[in-house]
Amino acid sequence: DSGVTQTPKHLITATGQRVTLRCSPRSGDLSVYWYQQSLDQGLQFLIQYYNGEERAKGNILERFSAQQFPDLHSELNLSSLELGDSALYFCASSVGQTVPHQETQYFGPGTRLLVL
Amino acid sequence: DAKTTQPPSMDCAEGRAANLPCNHSTISGNEYVYWYRQIHSQGPQYIIHGLKNNETNEMASLIITEDRKSSTLILPHATLRDTAVYYCIVRPYNNNDMRFGAGTRLTVKP
Questions:
Q1: How far from each other are the two terminal CA atoms of chain A, in whole angstroms?
Q2: Which string of DSSP letters, residue by residue, matches B11-50?
């Protein structure tokens, strides 16, 4: 158990809909990361937040957005969903430092999204 | 960014050492080598990381060649529960995003 929690475990929705995935980092961790894992693309980094502010952006679509709240939990919002958005979405956390620095990331169990 | 090359799959007998190679010939001086594994569709699990010295922890050992162009992850006594996809990742010191490749699918057989 990494200490990172994600809800829900599974989500089934229809095309065009909007969903919100939630992540609670390990106790004390300030940085949160979101990753997408689909069958054809592998694990891809989407976005990172550090202490409430966006720190780094990867291959995140404009239809997707994220935020980190004062209690450090994070939410990933996916809108105008398409069939191709079906994937596993993982959240990870790390200690977090003021200056960007490579840190060990600990992953949650993921949310499996199925868009029908 | 430095890239890594790993064999797509490997087999290992239960109880034997599993040696997983990774080539990172374009690695820069400030880039670390990280290893993660993913069991079925669970979240990736951190195993070990290093810069230039060999490292060991309760899960595995990491051997990095002197020229740092390749490394080997060693699971000393593989069990069936070590069956997973193993990812070798090279990360710059000042960069926090991780680029996962296809990894090596290790199958531990009885």
A1: 31
A2: EEETTS-EEEEEE-TT--TTEEEEEEEE-TTSPPEEEEEE
Q: State chain A's mean pLDDT as an integer.
A: 93
Cβ contact A90:A108 at 8 Å: yes
Both tokens assigned to A103:
């840190």
**pLDDT means per 10 residues in chain B (110 residues)?**
86 97 92 94 94 94 96 97 96 78 95
List, in sequence order, every residue forming a beta bridge with B51; answer none if it has no partner.
Answer: none
> For testing the chain B interface, which of A38, A41, A43 should be mutated: the one with the most B CBs within 10 Å?
A43
From CA B15, how far away is CA A83, in angstroms rounded?
A: 43
Q: Residue B25: what pLDDT?
A: 93
Amino acid code (one letter) for B88: C
Q: Cβ separation of B41 and A112 shorter than 8 Å?
A: yes
Q: Which helix (H) or strand (E) holds A55?
A: strand A53-57
Q: Which residues of B touch A102 (CB under 8 A)?
A: 32, 91-96
Query: B3, B24 in Cβ contact below 8 A?
Result: yes
pLDDT in tens, A56-83: 899 899 999 999 999 999 999 999 999 9
pLDDT of A101 reads 65
Please name the member of A58, A106, A109 whose beta carbon is closest to the beta carbon of B46. Answer: A106
Residue B92 near chain A (CB below 8 Å): yes
Q: Which residues of A touch B96 (CB under 8 A)?
A: 31, 33, 48, 55-56, 94, 100-103, 105
